[in-house]
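Example is below:
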Amino acid sequence: MATQVQQGDVLVLTEEAVRSVERNHSLWNEDLRPSTRDEHSWSGMKFASLWIGMCICLPTYSMASGFIALGMNWWESVITVLVGSVIVLIPILLVSHAGTKFGIPYPVFARLWFGKWGAHIPALARAIIATGWFGINSWFGGQALDAILTRVIHGWSSFGFHMGVSFLIFWAINVAIAMRGPQAIGKLAVFAAPTLAIGAIILFIWAADKAGGFGPMLAAPAKIHGVKFWDAFYPSVISVIAFWATMALNIPDYTRYAKTQKGQVQGQIWSMPLTMAAFAFIGIAVTSATVILYHQAMWDPVSLIAKFPTILVIISGIVVILASVTINVGANVMAPARAFENLWPRRITFAIGAVITGLLAFGMQPWYVLSEFSNYIFNWLGTYGTLLGPFDGIAIADYWFVRRQRLDLLALYSTNSRYDYARGFNLRAVWALVIGWLIAVIGLIIPALHFLWSGGWLFSLLGGMIAYAIFMRSDRSILSDTEYERITLVQPDGHLTGGLASGMSASK
């Protein structure tokens, strides 16, 4: 009997399948269930707006600006950002397909490769990294708020804990917005993207004017050449990749709302790499201007803003705050909130997950991560990129090579199903994960192979991907052509009816 219906690019559960599984509170709730047909409403423009809003953020600016501090010139820095962005877009698009077709969020997608309970491993790994980013962006926003309050409130800077208070205020604003849910996140991105773009252009024009034109601003020569350049370029590209390695995992949390595969692919291709390169150029150019104006490369934009006249501090601070809120609620709340929900779907809602995310952000010590550029680029980005690499590889191998885009959607929400593996854990995925990590760690142990560690995301991804594909090549959880055809009813566009297919909201 058919339990799932496919119409065009989208597959949903039948009404009978929903009734059979919706009372399984350990695996199902309103946020974790597959999207209804009506919920597949995001166009390519929505995805473009989402990415523009997420890319135009303080971490992007600081990362790109830091390449100037490493000794690159402006065009070398822009190419570094563009190359890394294009490379990481490949796994993002590969994983996006699953979200669009099956309408499932990341924690449910992870059940496919790690099992019902094993899915907590990749979900929580992604969540931990997201809480770190939540803290980093909250610190940036708190700095901007502190700069504003310092100018408008007499004696504010003399208060010993003024930066801490600004951070806590901004943190609370982020949590309050995030608690409103993913649809509010999408609306915020549409509003914020054009505002942030205008603010970035104004900052660029200001820097060019103060530096005496584009020529002087971009005339600074590279300080590293030959082997030294490639020694810096290689880990820098990996750091750009690691910057969005998180989204390469939980992008289904967004593409589950896409209307079509073509729409989400085009929306992402024409927005993410180009926006990253364009905003990186602005950050690099402005940082180059600070060398002329202040005789040092100021890679922290908030430190630069603090030197402006009061009215400009207020305007620029508001732009920074908006940027930080957008990236936080757009990229750093969805995954951990869903992961915490998945731990206890019956009790933990998305809103509660957002609060937990905010609380854990304190433990990631964003003030330390941002204290030095090397902490940010090599320690933070490099290390967590290596941590997430095998998960990216396993996800791609499972969906594209092992299962060939064929899933039993109902089984992902059912107990004692084909995706339970060994008591809820797919040990083959665990071993593939360990192999991916070990390949990168070898680079720490053997100096001659240090490139394995400095390129940790890439080599751990390839190691996890290949190992998983080999381990799972004949696993009994894989659907045969006959089984997939038996459970899947294919209908032409405009004729989808029944249950989640019709857009009926599944009850708790």
In short: The chain has 24 helices and three strands. Residues 40-389 form a domain with the Hydantoin permease fold (CATH 1.10.4160.10). The longest strand covers residues 4-7.
